[in-house]
């Protein structure tokens, strides 16, 4: 439903007077500066959007996906020219976020072959969400796009193009929903189900998608709301009356969509298995009777709200096998989210480390290379940052199962656990992470691990199968040299025991 028909800027007049429709579409998001947000009205926002779309569409500009056009003065000047000052007065960033169309595997796209759609948006940053005092006390309601979810989408890394598929699905649902009236509804429920093991990013994907929807729909709807229903809380809080609660929530959502047609609503039902468990396995026990009724209420609720063009459901579950068939039949898209692959694990680590570098927790003089470059680094120099990070990712990858959740926490946890000095440089941070992922690897047993202790000299730890030792030296020693000496001595047969 993003512009259902092309506008005049979508066409290029060729010399032969043939009209050529640009095959791709490039999405650019302009975030309004927080300090001018309250001074702007809707007209200013629309004006800025139209100015940027017209400017970019009428020239020959090349854009790199994920770049922020305003980040560097020189490139910003090249792209925006005389508009730069005016744009900077209003916008904090201008990011090239998505490309839909042919050659989607390319990261560079030009305004001569892609239509440009700019969305200008303000971020809500009120930390409060409406709960107890709202119409739907069983849920958390957040006005979107919200600062809480800023960057969530960009931080998620997956091997398969799940983000691209979700964007397409969302674009299609939104586009077609407007073409159906209340009487002639779509056959498919606007419902996306993400399922997979814990900590693989399902909830974050839904929140990131809701943020995307809010930004994308900025010019079509006055507001977007995210209603988050945590079903396990719902069940524990309203014990034995979950069916009634589910029914009530859906009735209120339906009323909201009807009474406020200019508000778009994303409903996130986390851990949906609590209210969508298979009725086949329900027994006559009181509690399961309640869960059976809750599943019925959910199905009825989904049918009741199916044809509202301003509503979409996003559900997550890590118990796919227990879900009711009738619920699964109502999912417009079912997508499995799996544990991250080696490449994704590397990228997650790299981005988290980069975040710590950006926040000056870690000092770094070198760049952290992306995964494909790290593989080359590993061939050329095993001590390089890329090779070491790749080695860490490989160690994690060979351990039984590590979720995206534990991976994202790893760099920070390592620094918190092992840092004993005022400052932490990249070399130290990598050492700490290596140390944290090492205990699971038996091949590392006996390898000495050194650490400088502020004001106390140097510590060396040697982990064995049964026992670990710690040598404490009063002076500050060269840790690497000491580790190498101990390692060499350990490998001598007479010292092995
Ligand atoms: N593939 C990934 N890329 C980057 N970060 C990830 C990834 N998977 C998980 N994370 C991070 O892990 C944390 C937990 O993710 P999230 O809560 O979305 O997982 P989940 O699949 O909903 O887990 P659960 O099934 O336990 O509810 C988040 O901070 C998220 O950013
Ligand atoms: Mg979750």
TrEMBL record:
Keywords: ATP-binding, Nucleotide-binding
Residues of the AAA+ ATPase domain: 188-342
Gene3D superfamilies: P-loop containing nucleotide triphosphate hydrolases (3.40.50.300)
Classification via SMART domains: AAA (SM00382)
A single GO molecular function term of this UniProt record: ATP hydrolysis activity
Keyword presence, Nucleotidyltransferase: no
InterPro entries: AAA+_ATPase, ATPase_AAA_core, P-loop_NTPase, Pch2-like
GO cellular component, one term: chromosome
SUPFAM superfamilies: P-loop containing nucleoside triphosphate hydrolases
GO BP terms in the entry: meiotic recombination checkpoint signaling; reciprocal meiotic recombination
Protein name from the UniProt record: AAA+ ATPase domain-containing protein
Naturally occurring in which organism (per UniProt): Phialocephala subalpina
Organism lineage: Eukaryota, Fungi, Dikarya, Ascomycota, Pezizomycotina
């Amino acid at each position: 439903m993003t512009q259902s028909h092309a506008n005049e800027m979508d066409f290029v007049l060729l010399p032969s007077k043939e009209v050529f429709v640009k095959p791709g579409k490039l999405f650019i998001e302009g975030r309004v500066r927080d300090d001018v947000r309250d001074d702007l009205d809707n007209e200013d926002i629309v004006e800025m959007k139209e100015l940027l779309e017209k400017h970019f569409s009428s020239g020959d500009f090349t854009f790199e996906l994920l770049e922020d056009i305003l980040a560097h003065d020189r490139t910003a000047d090249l792209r925006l020219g005389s508009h730069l000052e005016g744009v900077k007065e209003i916008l904090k960033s201008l990011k090239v976020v998505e490309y839909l169309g042919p050659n989607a595997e390319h990261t560079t796209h030009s305004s001569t072959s892609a239509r440009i759609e700019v969305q200008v948006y303000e971020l809500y940053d009120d930390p409060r969400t409406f709960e107890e005092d709202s119409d739907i006390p069983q849920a958390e309601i957040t006005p979107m796009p919200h600062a809480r979810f800023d960057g969530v989408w960009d931080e998620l890394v997956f091997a398969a193009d799940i983000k691209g598929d979700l964007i397409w699905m969302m674009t299609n649902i939104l586009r077609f929903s407007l073409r159906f009236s209340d009487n002639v509804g779509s056959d498919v429920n606007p419902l996306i189900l993400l399922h997979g093991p814990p900590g693989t990013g399902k909830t974050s994907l839904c929140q990131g998608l809701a943020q995307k929807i809010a930004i994308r729909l900025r010019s079509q709807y006055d507001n977007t709301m995210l209603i988050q229903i945590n079903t396990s809380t719902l069940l524990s809080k309203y014990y034995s009356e979950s069916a009634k609660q589910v029914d009530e929530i859906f009735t209120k959502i339906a009323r909201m969509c009807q009474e406020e047609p200019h508000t778009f609503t994303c409903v996130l039902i986390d851990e949906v298995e609590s209210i969508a468990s298979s009725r086949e396995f329900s027994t006559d026990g009181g509690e399961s009777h309640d869960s059976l009724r809750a599943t019925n209420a959910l199905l009825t609720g989904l049918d009741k709200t199916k044809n509202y063009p301003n509503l979409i459901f996003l559900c997550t579950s890590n118990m796919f096998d227990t879900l009711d068939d009738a619920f699964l039949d109502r999912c417009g898209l079912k997508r499995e989210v799996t544990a991250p692959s080696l490449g994704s694990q590397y990228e997650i680590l790299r981005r988290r480390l980069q975040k710590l570098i950006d926040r000056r927790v870690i000092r770094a003089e070198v760049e952290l290379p992306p995964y494909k470059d790290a593989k080359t680094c590993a061939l050329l120099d095993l001590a390089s940052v890329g090779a070491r990070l790749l080695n860490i990712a490989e160690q994690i990858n060979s351990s039984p199962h590590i979720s995206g959740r534990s991976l994202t926490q790893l760099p920070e946890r390592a620094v918190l656990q092992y840092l004993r000095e005022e400052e932490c440089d990249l070399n130290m941070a990598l050492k700490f992470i290596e140390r944290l992922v090492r205990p699971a690897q038996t091949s590392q047993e006996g390898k000495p691990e050194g650490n400088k202790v502020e004001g106390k000299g140097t510590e060396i730890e040697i982990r064995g199968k049964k026992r670990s030792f710690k040598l404490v030296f009063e002076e500050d020693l060269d840790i690497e040299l000491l580790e190498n000496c101990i390692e060499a001595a350990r490998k001598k047969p007479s010292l092995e025991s």
